[in-house]
Amino acid sequence: MLDVQSDRLQSYINSSEKQKALYKRxxxxxxxxxxxxGAGLAAxxxxxxxxxxxxxxxxxxxxxxxxxxxxxxxxxxLFVGRLSQRYGRRTGLAAGFIIGGxxxxxxxxxxIINSIVLLFISLLIYGAGSATNLQARYAGTDLAxxxxxxxxxxxxxxxxxxxxxxxPNLVNVMGDFAVSxxxxxxxxxxILAAAAYILxxxxLFVMLRPDPLVMARSxxxxxxxxxxxxxxxxxxNRENKRGVIVGATIMVLTxxxxxxIMTMTPVHMRHHGHGLGAVGLxxxxxxxxxxxxxxxxxxxxxxLGRAVMGIASGITLLLAGLISAFAPGDSMVLLIIALCLxxxxxxxxxxxxxxxxxxxxxxxxxxxxxxxxxxxIALSGAAGGALSGMVVAGSSYPTLSLVGGIxxxxxxxxxxxxxxxxx
Length: 423
Known about the structure:
This protein has one domain: Up-down Bundle (Growth Hormone, Chain: A). Mean pLDDT is 84; it is low at 230-239. It is an all-alpha fold. 85% of the residues lie in helices and 0% in strands. The protein has helices spanning 2-13, 16-56, 64-87, 89-113, 116-139, 149-169, 171-180, 188-207, 212-224, 229-271, 276-291, 294-304, 306-326, 332-359, 366-394, 397-407, 411-420. The chain contains 17 helices and no strands. It is globular and about 65 Å long.
């Protein structure tokens, strides 16, 4: 059995055509899983804050669901990254999605029995799906060369759009379905999330063979046999460290700003008389802007460079914050524009930052490093979600939006620093 697997690996190592075919197949499989993953992710984003508001009876802690499932995703990111490093992407990603689906089931049960404690625990577990959905973007890059990486990331993210946009727009449908089976309406989208995450995990576990990370590691080991490993390490080590730091910083800042503003937008809208359908529409546009422009973004990141698109991310998030801050609360059009810009700025930052991380790591440590970086991203999202409710309760939604927009400008000096290191 081991000889058969070894011969199969060797056949890919010896054939560039088979490598290209596996790269395309891997992208396709990961993209299919992202459709389900996007739908699962959208449930918590759309109604998580509203469910907590309803069960707790106050706005002050409405940001807690976002904080909890992003905090849960931090632990899951580390778990999925290390599991992937040891056993391959297939095992790590499948486990993460299935755990996220179990968390969604827990949220449904907590709503039925009205248990705040179970809700909070379940949201932490549900966060595993979010972390896995984010880490799946790396699987498409394992077999890509440095001129394909941003495009590979973008292709998987485009497919996330289909599920992510459908999810919020099925809020009313899933709410009605939930009521028909004796479940509170706000728990309805989590029924969709449970099914979607478990299907995503099953698809990856069954179809992601051969494993792209295992294959990339084998190809890299074969290619380095003819190289001076000591020289390679000394010439790349400093660039790798700088690239990882800057890529992580770009993604952390964009995550804080995006999560903070996005989390409180549904609550802000409900205070101004918008219905659940309108909330779902705005969040649907937002999530569409997070993922749908990805293919174009990937091309721009590969052609214009990671640094240029990092700066574009900061400027776009600033515009989103300004429009959110000064738009009348009853203006659906301006809220949609603001949330679309918020999603687009996040998209620019995630793809450019992810490409920097992949550029700066080797297959021997890549998944572990990526998991660690995603922990920072998740923790930053948790902080943004938790603080957003407190800022709005203590001040206002416009204040939150304005602070977030101004924070995004920190991306510019960070990017200038990485460009200064390339002489």
